[in-house]
């Protein structure tokens, strides 16, 4: 369980996060949605220990994140960043292996190979990272994160995957397969927190949805309750776009049906 | 049949370049051994490889005392100094490129060497006036220490100015490096105006960059600096690899980023400062060696850093052998040799296919 309590982050006089409290639980796929500038990435930086909040505290199973050394945190959670450029031509395998080395794998090369084939990049091991397409680069980074936390639960402690827009620059098929891997990770007892822009994907995959707006939690809970016409209208300014799939009660967003 | 023969190569081609790295390191060790033999066995005095062979066989008695002196007191310290200087220059270049995430970062180009030079000139010119107490206290280590702090100051300044939010743009890096270097040279010029004749000779000697005048005293004075830089290689290699993905990603992978950067900045300054103190400014070794090695073994610092130490040492010995023999009995400054083949490679890097991504980095 990773908990953030009363997180406030101010930068140049603007509150990026304003007293945000969220709890990310093992076994749940938690998704953060919200418009641009809502503070989603900032929240993830604070939760991963990368950024110190001005107020509030983040704890991993009760231990304050500030007391953890970087190497300890690296064993507990992996982070998939948004697009990453490299100045040096590492191969896909070498990138993925960095994640395996970070968690202290006995055989990091094998761990990296496994991670690459999990994201559908078997056969891409020797490709230089800069020569890959944007989507392939994103999947190599995902493989690196998976190689860092290969087991959803290790030594009895759930591990965490933090995914910052994991589906950006992926085609539809890979968007779904990346989120399925993340869902399996959560279902096996791991902790998953993802930032998504696509409300339909969020509605399908999230067990727990957090809607951020202007640095505050606008709504929180199961998707069926949080993705509603009122929330979408107040946060995104689009009214009348939410429908429901009758059988599963999964909400869906159809922008074409909005009130004009 | 054909596929059987291709097996080892296919295994090397599966993205894991560990075997390739080990192989290149082994070849570099061989190259360094050969370079040492050439460096000790070749020169304008007529003492040649055959005399070295006689000496190495333990038959030193059959050589004249003059020949023994040339081997033991002239060429041996010069070769030892060449190894230390070459290794330090190439490793500091490779570390700096990793720190700045930029294959064009080189201590000579971005003004770090000028900082060391300025401090060294200050040590020479002001050593018996306002800096006299320090000079007396540190003795023969005064010059290398001053050069170290000069290099450290400029590296720190460059890092502070050229880096925004953990990213260093090539433009900011090169331009602020040029400005810092020019400022250092200007202040150095002011000091040179104040220098007397004897001090001027000292200054001119290492401004050109040379391994001439090598003594075991000089070897010993820079040995601790170079030893420390080489000793930290295993501790920074993984961190520099992770840093290629950015500060945040490196932290996510368990690297204490700020500490790593501080250690690398001090190491680069130690390597540059100490080499400038004993051999003057010798350019381009720090950019050519890591670049060629990245082509041969990939960019991973696990192999790149030790490879740079070996390759830099070998390159320095070869360049010095050329400098001593090509215009014998006159001796070319070694900085001319390294610039002659280093500058074209630098331009090639900047303008070539690889350069596109570097030039376009914001």
From TrEMBL, chain A:
Keywords from the named record: ATP-binding, Nucleotide-binding, Translocase, Transport
Record's keyword annotation contains Translocase: yes
Keyword Nucleotide-binding among UniProt keywords: yes
PROSITE patterns: ABC_TRANSPORTER_1, ABC_TRANSPORTER_2
CDD domains, per the entry: ABC_Iron-Siderophores_B12_Hemin (cd03214)
PANTHER family: HEMIN IMPORT ATP-BINDING PROTEIN HMUV (PTHR42794)
Protein family according to the UniProt entry: Belongs to the ABC transporter superfamily.
Role played: Part of the ABC transporter complex HmuTUV involved in hemin import. Responsible for energy coupling to the transport system.
Record protein name field: Heme ABC transporter ATP-binding protein
The species this protein was found in: Rhizobium deserti
Automatic annotation (TrEMBL), chain B:
Annotated keywords: Cell membrane, Membrane, Transmembrane, Transmembrane helix, Transport
Taxonomic superkingdom: Bacteria
This protein's record includes keyword Membrane: yes
InterPro entries assigned to the protein according to its UniProt record, in alphabetical order: ABC_BtuC-like (IPR037294), ABC_transptr_permease_BtuC (IPR000522)
Topology versus the membrane: Multi-pass membrane protein
Compartment list: Cell membrane
One annotated Gene Ontology cellular component of this protein: plasma membrane
A Pfam family per the record: FecCD
Gene3D superfamilies attached to this UniProt entry: ABC transporter involved in vitamin B12 uptake, BtuC
Residues spanning the membrane: 21-42, 80-100, 112-136, 142-161, 173-195, 215-233, 263-291, 303-326, 332-351
Key word Cell membrane present: yes
Protein family membership: Belongs to the binding-protein-dependent transport system permease family. FecCD subfamily.
Organism expressing this protein natively: Rhizobium deserti
Name of this chain's protein: Iron ABC transporter permease
Molecular function GO terms recorded: transmembrane transporter activity
GO process terms (BP): siderophore-iron import into cell
């Amino acid at each position: 369980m990773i908990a953030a309590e009363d997180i406030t982050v101010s930068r140049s006089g603007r509150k990026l996060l304003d007293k945000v409290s969220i709890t990310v639980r093992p076994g749940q796929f938690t998704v953060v949605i919200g418009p641009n500038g809502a503070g989603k990435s900032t929240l993830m930086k604070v939760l991963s220990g990368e950024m110190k909040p001005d107020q509030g505290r983040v704890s991993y199973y009760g231990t304050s994140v500030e007391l953890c050394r970087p190497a300890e945190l690296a064993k507990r959670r992996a982070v998939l960043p948004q697009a990453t450029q490299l100045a040096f031509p590492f191969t896909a395998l070498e990138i993925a292996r960095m994640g395996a080395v970070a968690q202290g794998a006995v055989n990091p090369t094998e761990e990296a190979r496994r991670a690459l084939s999990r994201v559908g990049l078997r056969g891409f091991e020797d490709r230089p990272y800069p020569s890959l397409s944007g989507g392939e680069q994103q999947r190599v980074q995902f493989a690196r994160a998976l190689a860092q936390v290969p087991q959803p639960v290790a030594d009895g402690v759930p591990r965490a995957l933090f995914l910052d827009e994991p589906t950006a620059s992926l085609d539809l098929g890979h968007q779904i397969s990346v989120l399925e891997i993340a869902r399996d990770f959560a279902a096996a007892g791991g902790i998953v927190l993802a930032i998504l822009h696509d409300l339909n994907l969020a509605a399908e995959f999230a067990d727990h949805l957090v809607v951020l707006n202007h640095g505050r939690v606008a709504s929180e809970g199961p998707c069926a309750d949080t993705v509603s016409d009122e929330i979408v209208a107040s946060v995104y300014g689009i009214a009348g776009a939410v429908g429901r799939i009758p059988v599963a009660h999964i909400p869906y967003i159809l922008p074409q049906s909005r009130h004009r | 049949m054909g596929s059987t023969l291709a097996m080892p190569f296919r295994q090397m081609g599966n993205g894991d370049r560990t075997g390739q790295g080990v192989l290149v390191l082994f070849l570099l060790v061989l190259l360094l051994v050969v370079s040492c033999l050439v460096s000790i066995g070749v020169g304008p005095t007529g003492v040649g490889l055959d005399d070295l062979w006689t000496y190495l066989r333990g038959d030193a008695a059959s050589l004249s005392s003059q020949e023994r002196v040339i081997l033991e007191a002239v060429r041996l310290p010069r070769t030892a100094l060449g190894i230390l200087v070459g290794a330090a220059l190439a490793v500091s270049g490779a570390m700096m490129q990793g720190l700045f995430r930029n294959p064009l970062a080189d201590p000579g180009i971005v003004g770090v060497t000028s900082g060391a030079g300025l401090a060294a000139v200050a040590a020479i010119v002001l050593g018996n006036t306002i800096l006299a107490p320090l000079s007396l206290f540190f003795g023969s280590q005064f010059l290398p220490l001053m050069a170290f702090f000069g290099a450290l100051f400029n590296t720190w300044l460059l890092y502070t100015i050229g880096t925004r939010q953990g990213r260093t743009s090539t433009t900011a890096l090169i331009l602020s490096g040029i400005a810092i270097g020019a400022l250092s040279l200007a202040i150095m010029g002011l000091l040179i105006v104040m220098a007397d004749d004897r001090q001027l000779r000292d200054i001119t000697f290492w401004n050109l960059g040379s391994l001439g005048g090598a003594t075991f005293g000089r070897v010993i004075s820079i040995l601790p600096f170079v030893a420390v830089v080489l000793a930290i290689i295993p501790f920074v290699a993984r961190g520099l690899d992770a840093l290629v993905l950015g500060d945040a990603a490196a932290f996510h992978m368990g690297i204490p980023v700020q500490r790593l950067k501080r250690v690398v900045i001090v190491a680069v300054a130690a390597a540059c400062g100490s080499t400038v103190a004993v051999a003057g400014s010798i350019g381009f070794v720090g950019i050519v060696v890591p670049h060629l090695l990245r082509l041969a073994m990939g960019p991973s610092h696990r192999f790149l850093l030790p490879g740079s130490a070996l390759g830099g040492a070998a390159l320095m010995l070869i360049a010095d052998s050329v400098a001593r023999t090509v215009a014998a009995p006159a001796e070319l400054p070694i900085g001319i040799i390294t610039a002659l083949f280093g500058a074209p490679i630098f331009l090639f890097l900047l303008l070539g296919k690889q350069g596109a991504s570097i030039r376009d980095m914001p």
